Amino acid sequence: MDAIERRAFVKGAGLGALAFTMGGAEVLLTPAQARSEGVPLRTLKPDEAATIEAVGETLVPGAQQQGIANFIDQQISIPAEEALLEARILNVKPPYANFYRAAIGAINAASTARHGKPFAQLDAPTRHAFIDQMRQNKIDGWKGPSGGFVYLLLRSDAVDVVYGTMAGYASLDIPYMAHIAPTKKW
Amino acid sequence: MATHEKVDVVIVGAGASGSTFAAVLAKAGKKVVLLESGPDWQPTDLISSDMWGRRLKPAGAPFLLQGKNPYGYAYQAGWGVGGAALHYFANFPRLMPNDFKVKSEHSRGLDWPINYSDVAPFYDRVADDVGVSGDAKAEERWRPAGKPYPMPPMKTFKNGDVWLKGFEAVGIKMTPAAVGMNSTEYKGRPACLYDGWCHVGCPIGALANPLVTYLGEAKKAGAEVRARATVTRVLTNSAGTRVTGVEYYDEKKEKQTQEASVVVLAAWAAQNPRLMLNSANDKHPNGLGNKSGLLGKYMMAHFASGTFALFDEDIENHMGTIGAQYFSYDRYDKLAHKDKGAFGSTFIVAGAAQKTSDLGGFANARLDLFGPALADFMKRAKRGLSRMTAFGEEMPNIENRIELASEKDEFGMPLGKFTHTFDEAAVNLWNANFDEGLKVAKATGAKEVWSGRGNQPTIHMFGGTIMGTGADNSVVDSFGQTHEIANLYIAGPGIFPTEGAPNPTYTIFALSLRGAEHLAETWASIAG
């Protein structure tokens, strides 16, 4: 059996898209599709999702459009053992929603103290400077999980949705070469 | 609470060590039950994706992490049938003769109660059992001769070959890495495709995970695997002289008892002591097998110094395996970096397929970059980035330990509290390996080179139930049999009294095969 045949042997056997709820029915979508189709948030509040999108986009261009807020919202709404979040391998204690709420709260509290408004309302250069200080744990009066860890984890989520998928590999022109491909190129 | 019919052996954990014990004992005609707390993974569950691969990582009760270098266990531990060996890198280096008598030779660390020659035949046997590719003759510059590996070395790619010039320049000899992967078809399992998805599980069986090796053999010989069975206590007779079975919660979270003539704890280096501490009773008030007071003590971790080199040309860095194409023991002497205040062995690997995301993904090669700078880096690194890694050894320290916390899990079992700090010699070794890594990288002629520094990482886990010569200095003997209770065994890296520097799973397989065969051979006197 040659390599291509062996790949084909197992192709399509697995999962790959996430289950979102639309109109009371469960549908399989990528986070980008969930965002573009306006799938309602299950756990995050709109202002929390806006913060996630703003931070994600500052960390990795494209993260907003790729549905980082919908990804995190869906992931913190399902049992921890089903989660695909990098939080899982960075020893964050479930439920993961607690971490994200604490991180969002810390970011917006620090942003408001420094600039008089939450992070999502900052302009792009100010967002960039804020994140650079946060990653180095240099924001005075920061309250919550360490800024460096928040940076690591949200950056990882943003990298996941932008570069960690089959579409992300294709955007970099890297051959994906799956044994069992995630469905919907996600 | 239901009590199941007594079996010969109940094994807690269906990873590398539990599967090996199960295969040997089931083939010896014993009735074997494996209890595994996670899901019953099948090869078809192993999706080629870093995100989906995280389902194989722990989702049970968390450990509470303390110390200056908290142990980041979740990346490398397992969750479900196959354990951590379902997603391991399958590098198959051995310990070396100088690992076994560190205390005698250097007046620090601990001695093993056995020598390299006691384990060597089992390395050779495991290689034949599970399939190892490599060049044994080339490795014999560092170790005594043994059998050739059953398969020739794996293919190499430019992303590994580019390092050879650099290593040669600093006087380090690299050889083809021994890996638990198929360079050719082996025992009906296909050859590797070199697509680098090893670390999220190899569904075609080219990589020697338990599902396609020892666990498969065990099931064929009649062993039963019960997934989603979370063991909370090991039970003893009223005299405390023998274990009688285990108590566990099934997938419906109902309490069950499985009686057995022999109990093997193969749950993981941190979980085994947690279980034994939680099994304290009036005859064992400090936990089972803990007369020495060493249960949960001497936890150890490897650390890694990763060095990156970015080349202008396409070095095929998406190709290969996630482990290593080349490895070296040329810095394995415990005193190799003595001039830097370091102590301990270093094991060097180079040439791994690059993926974009996850902890080891190349987005993390420059963790300081974000925004447009990260996007630019991703484009530059996608074909030209490569990494070498030097794994370092820390010495056993009694203060690095597992204890029970006051907080409890959903079954009422106290959480484990894990305290870990690297000593000065380990920190110095980590730094020395970065220094040498940069010299190597610069000598490759790469366009850019840098050290992948961050917090000192904890990689692989050892100790907590160490082996030794008696109950005054250890928890188990060299076969994993507890000194105090003859029919209670411990398997896995928890029984290592020192860790060496290489990836541990080959040694875990070898020690488990040795322990299981000894148990089978002495069954009548042990099982009663």
Explain this structure.
The complex is a heterodimer of chains A (186) and B (528). Chain A is mostly helical. Helices cover 49% and strands 5% of the residues of chain A. In chain A, strand 1 (18-22) and strand 2 form a beta hairpin. The two termini of chain A are 28 Å apart. Residues 1-15 of chain A have low confidence and may be disordered. Chain B has 13 helices and 17 strands. In chain B, the strands form three sheets. In chain B, strands 1, 2, 5, 6, 7, 8 and 17 form a seven-stranded mixed beta sheet that branches. In chain B, strands 4, 9, 10, 11, 12, 15 and 16 form a seven-stranded antiparallel beta sheet that branches. In chain B, helix 1 links the parallel strand 1 (2-12) and strand 2 (32-35). At the A-B interface, helix 1, helix 6 and helix 7 of A face helix 2 and helix 10 of B.
Q: What radius of gyration of chain A results from the CA coordinates?
A: 18 Å
Share in helix of chain A = 40-55%
Query: Averaging pLDDT over every residue of chain A, what do you get?
Result: 89
Anisotropy-based shape of chain A: globular
What is the overall number of helices of chain A?
8
Cα-atom Rg of chain B, whole angstroms? 22 Å
As residue ranges, the low-confidence spans of chain B are: none
What topology, given as strand order, has the largest sheet of chain A?
1-2
Give a concise summary.
The complex is a heterodimer of chains A (186) and B (528). Chain A is mainly alpha-helical and 186 residues long.
Provide tags for this entry:
heterodimer, A: 186 residues, mainly alpha, 2 strands, globular, disordered N terminus, B: 528 residues, alpha/beta, seven-stranded mixed β-sheet, seven-stranded antiparallel β-sheet, 13 helices, 17 strands, 23% helix
Task: Write the SSE topology.
The complex is a heterodimer of chains A (186) and B (528).
Chain A (H helix, E strand, L loop, with lengths): L2 H8 L7 E5 L2 E5 L1 H6 L9 H14 L8 H8 L20 H20 L8 H12 L11 H17 L2 H6 L15
Chain B lengths: L1 E11 L3 H12 L4 E4 L14 H4 L10 E3 L35 H5 L9 H16 L4 H4 L18 H4 L2 H6 L5 E2 L37 H7 L3 E3 L3 E7 L6 E7 L5 E11 L5 H8 L21 E11 L15 E3 L17 E5 L21 H13 E8 L8 E8 L5 E6 L4 H20 L4 E4 L7 E4 L25 E3 L14 H17 L1 H5 L1
Parallel strand pairs in B: 1-2, 1-8, 2-5, 3-14, 8-17
Antiparallel strand pairs in B: 4-10, 6-7, 7-8, 9-12, 9-15, 9-16, 10-11, 11-12, 13-14
Helix pairs in contact in B: 1-8, 1-12, 4-12
